[in-house]
From TrEMBL:
The lineage of its organism: Bacteria, Pseudomonadati, Pseudomonadota, Alphaproteobacteria, Hyphomicrobiales. The chain crosses the membrane at residues 7-30, 36-53, 74-93, 105-127, 136-156, 162-187, 208-230, 250-269, 281-303, 315-336, 348-366, 372-391. This is Membrane protein involved in the export of O-antigen and teichoic acid. Keywords: Membrane, Transmembrane, Transmembrane helix. It comes from Bosea thiooxidans. The keyword Membrane applies. The keyword Transmembrane helix applies.
Length: 407
């Protein structure tokens, strides 16, 4: 029990340090630069969903190491193609990125950064498969520290700051990958060179046909608000809103991650648990989200009385508005995973796609950043509500089928 608590504390601490370092870098760079970088980060989160067509989950759940190796070899071959798609999507969703100097070097850095993200995704999958929570926490921590140090060092040069932020991200990812791979030469020898294995996509088609579209729709909706703001505001305003979102997202994401891990580990999607009543769990979680929101808004209000001008003041002014978006998203966080674990990928897909269609309508017709953010918060809140309403129905609909499968 003590070891489990220590591992949980280490994992939580690693994520807190990662979030604080990300916030620190956001404060260091100029608002206009962070506006660009924040949009790239949002696109990168979408890329993480389709980087290897969700085959990273197959690595975790494969019955044998041999099958996991085959999946990884195929996934490595997919990365260059999906990274190219991600670069094209980045320039399509944020056309002003094409003006970043030096143009061709920046494009190459962006491509390598997406490749590095995909590589970390596969390494993370192997650590999850091994159940080594300590190494997984060290991966998060080492990547965050190395990225922050690399970006801070590169920003002291006279080179274009956005390109240096991307280059620092690459250096941090590669260093973390090297640390994680240390001592695993035998496994690396089996993974390299990449090679396609016939039947991989067929054997794991459920992940590709159901899990991938639902996850892609969900993550795209999360990325759309900042991309939409990038179309409606000047670069400095985009930077202030991006930083305000980063500040609001940090505690909300930690809360959502902890709640989701607890819900999955406890098997709450099975609809039967002796831990406490479902209603109590709902009330505790809802109260926690509201408490985090109250602290964010209260802290922003208090700081606004002291700091009346400058970048921090401009950022603080947006927190009472932008906190609604991560709060609305995180309210549905645990259930977004539980619906999938309950074998209801079809329902999850319908919910996420419907929300995405509404989000695309806002992206197309919005004319001002604040109303757009409030519209996205409303869509995310309705999606969370539907997810909470769907899962209890699954509890009643799936017990016989589940018990049969467990037998």
């Amino acid at each position: 029990m003590t070891r489990t608590r220590s591992l949980m504390a280490l994992a939580f601490g690693a994520r807190i340090v990662s979030a604080l370092l990300a916030l620190g870098m956001a404060v260091i760079v100029a608002p206009a630069v962070f506006g660009f970088y924040g949009r790239l980060q949002a696109i990168g989160l979408v890329f993480a969903v389709f980087a290897v067509l969700r085959l990273e989950r197959a690595i975790v759940s494969s019955a044998s190491t041999t099958e996991a190796v085959r999946v990884t070899r195929c996934a490595l071959l997919l990365l260059p193609a999906t990274s190219t798609v991600a670069v094209l999507a980045a320039f399509a969703l944020a056309p002003d990125l094409a003006d970043q100097p030096p143009r061709y070097i920046f494009t190459a850095l962006l491509f390598i950064a997406f490749l590095a993200r995909g590589l970390l995704l596969l390494i993370n999958a192997w650590l999850l498969r091994s159940g080594n929570q300590m190494r997984l926490s060290y991966l998060v921590l080492s990547q965050a520290v190395a990225q922050f140090a690399s970006q801070a060092l590169l920003l002291t040069t006279d080179l274009p700051p956005l390109a240096m932020l991307v280059a620092g991200e690459i250096m941090g990812a590669l260093l973390a990958a090297a640390i994680a791979a240390a001592g695993h030469r035998a496994l690396l020898a089996r993974l390299i060179p990449p090679r396609w294995t016939a039947g991989i996509l067929s054997r794991w088609r459920r992940l590709i046909l159901f899990n991938l579209p639902a996850a892609l729709a969900s993550q795209t909706l999360v990325a759309l608000p900042l991309i939409t703001v990038g179309r409606l505001a000047d670069h400095a305003t985009i930077g202030h809103i991006a930083l305000a979102l980063r500040i609001a997202e940090a505690p909300m994401a930690l809360l959502g991650s902890a709640a989701t891990s607890f819900a999955v580990a406890a098997g709450l999607w099975r609809g039967r648990t002796s831990l406490t009543s479902p209603l109590q769990l709902v009330l505790v979680y809802f109260a926690s989200v509201m408490l985090f929101g109250f602290l964010l808004v209260g802290g922003a209000w208090g700081l606004s009385l002291v700091i009346i001008e400058g970048r921090i003041a401009a950022t603080i002014a947006y927190i009472p508005v932008v906190f609604l978006l991560p709060a609305a998203i995180v309210l549905g966080g645990p259930h977004a995973e539980l619906v999938t674990y309950a074998g209801a990928e079809g329902q999850a897909f319908s919910i996420h796609v419907t929300a995405l269609i509404a989000g695309l309508a806002v992206f197309h017709w919005a004319t001002a950043p604040v109303p757009a953010l409030l519209s996205f918060a409303a869509i995310a809140g309705l999606r969370s509500l539907v997810l909470w309403l769907v899962l209890p129905r699954l509890f009643r609909a799936l017990p016989d089928k589940r018990d049969h499968n467990e037998a």
